[in-house]
């Protein structure tokens, strides 16, 4: 079990440091019935990370005749993911340079509609945010490859995927935690800082992509 956990934990910071999902949680927490919406968003995010990494890892393992993904298949998958991450880094780098030369910055259009989401759509929207960002998908795919290449039964795989999901949800859950610990005033102060992670979107994505590409190639 320890091997599987150590294999996937390096990919948790990629989800933990993603700038926009915590902003979405903060905006949900400020809306009517905010804590319930934020809880649903956080829970679905955790479940999405868990199911995606676990299902993909088990599928890769079952696709090979051995008890784990073969070394050559592991290396090939890691190399392909690294190439894809370099492509994402180029896109984010272009966006970062563009932001520096523009007098105004732009944020995704979906971000400002989060606060108006019905309560029953807050959870599914978290899955959408998770699955529509290429960097999220590549990190989950890399974690799945790491799971498939590590010996161990499905309980170890499940425990590792659950821990990855928990660590990768801490950033998303931060505004919800603040709302419980510091109350409404804490949520307001945190919400006022939302422009900082939005502005950091391209920069954080660039460095995460470069870092994980280098990690997969080592």
Automatic annotation (TrEMBL):
Print the keywords alphabetically: Membrane, Transmembrane, Transmembrane helix
Q: Where are the transmembrane segments?
A: 6-31, 43-64, 76-97, 135-154, 160-186, 198-217
Q: By what name is this protein known?
A: Uncharacterized protein
């Amino acid at each position: 079990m320890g091997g599987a956990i150590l294999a996937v934990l390096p990919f948790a910071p990629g989800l933990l440091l993603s700038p926009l999902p915590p902003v979405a949680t903060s905006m949900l927490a400020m809306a009517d019935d905010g804590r319930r919406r934020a809880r649903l968003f956080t829970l679905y995010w955790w479940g999405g990370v868990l199911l995606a990494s676990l299902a993909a890892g088990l599928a890769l393992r079952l696709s090979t005749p051995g008890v784990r993904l073969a070394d050559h298949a592991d290396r090939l998958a890691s190399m392909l993911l690294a190439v894809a991450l370099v492509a994402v880094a180029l896109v984010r780098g272009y966006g970062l340079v563009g932001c520096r030369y523009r007098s105004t910055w732009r944020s995704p259009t979906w971000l400002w509609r989060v606060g108006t989401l019905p309560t029953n759509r807050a959870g599914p929207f978290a899955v959408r945010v998770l699955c529509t960002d290429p960097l999220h998908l590549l990190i989950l795919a890399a974690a799945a490859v790491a799971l498939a290449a590590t010996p161990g039964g499905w309980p170890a795989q499940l425990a590792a995927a659950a821990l990855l999901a928990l660590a990768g949800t801490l950033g998303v859950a931060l505004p919800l935690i603040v709302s419980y610990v510091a109350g409404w005033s804490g949520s307001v102060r945190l919400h006022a800082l939302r422009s900082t992670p939005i502005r950091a979107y391209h920069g954080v994505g660039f460095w995460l992509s470069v870092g994980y590409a280098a990690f997969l190639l080592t």
